[in-house]
Design the sequence.
């Protein structure tokens, strides 16, 4: 059974940092690109970062570029999202997802398996 489980969310003050983890099971992680998405209340889901299967390529939305870093440890079946300089605008539920045939080049709907999400709340 394919499963992705996010962890590491929580409440942090503005300017603080968090590291999210996405632990995979039921499939071979190093065969897939993995993306991070977020959804704030009343807003559409936003793709914020993606990493290629080997870890050699990573992509960021403009909204997080320079503040967030995606990485992966395939031996631990885990993808990470290091988030620095957090602001209230980063408050959202964060999801990781497995890339489909187009991998990081695809849109959110092409990602075929999703975690349950982890809440990140940044206080001002």
Sequence:
């Amino acid at each position: 059974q394919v499963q992705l489980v996010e962890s590491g969310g929580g409440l942090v003050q503005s300017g603080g940092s968090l590291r999210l983890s996405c632990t995979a099971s039921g499939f071979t992680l190093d065969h897939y690109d993995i993306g991070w998405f977020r959804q704030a209340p009343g807003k559409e889901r936003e793709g914020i970062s993606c990493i290629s299967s080997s870890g050699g390529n990573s992509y960021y939305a403009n909204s997080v570029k320079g503040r967030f870093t995606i990485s992966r440890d395939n031996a631990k079946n885990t993808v990470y999202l290091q988030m620095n300089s957090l602001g209230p605008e980063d408050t959202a539920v964060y999801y990781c997802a497995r890339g489909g045939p187009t991998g990081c080049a695809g849109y959110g709907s092409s990602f075929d398996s999703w975690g349950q999400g982890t809440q990140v709340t940044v206080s001002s």
